[in-house]
Amino acid sequence: MHKYPDVSIIPMNGKSPRIHDSAFIAPGCRIIGDVEIGPDVSIWYNCVLRADVNFIRIGARTNIQDGSVLHCDSATPGRPEGFPTILGEDVLVGHLAMVHGCVVEDRGFIGLGAIVMNGAHIESDGMLAAGAMLTGGKRIGARQLWGGRPAAHMRDLTEAAIADMQRGVAHYVHNGKAHKHAVETASHGATEG
Asked: Mind listing the pLDDT tens digit for each residue in 96-105?
């Protein structure tokens, strides 16, 4: 049995999720198949990470906020590698995001309720605005803000905006540790009672 209360960690097709000891996995999460979660990552309440047909990789200090769904896509005749989902380090993924078969480089940002589709790519310090949809194959350049459905370039980000994103990463690392302690304490109390 794993150490995460009310979390489903399910091997699939001979691949089991690999989760760093320092990561926070909140109750209600479902983590399936070939998923790798790095140090100080936080996966918040009721997220689904399903790597049944390809792989998902999540770099250090990245956070996946409540209710988000990460999936990938299988190989096709024109794309034998399929569409894995790869998130670098210090990535922020807002609540209820849909992240599918894409790449988000270090310090990328996906806003609340945004959708990122197969083959899309967000470069370092790039931001997809809340509610936006980044369609397949589109690429957000470094330090660019894209928004809308379908998403389009809106403007370049200021140093202040990039600093805000990094403060958000630091906040989620700190908050993840606090929630991890609270969940472990509550779980320990429940087993004693």
From this structure: 999 999 999 9
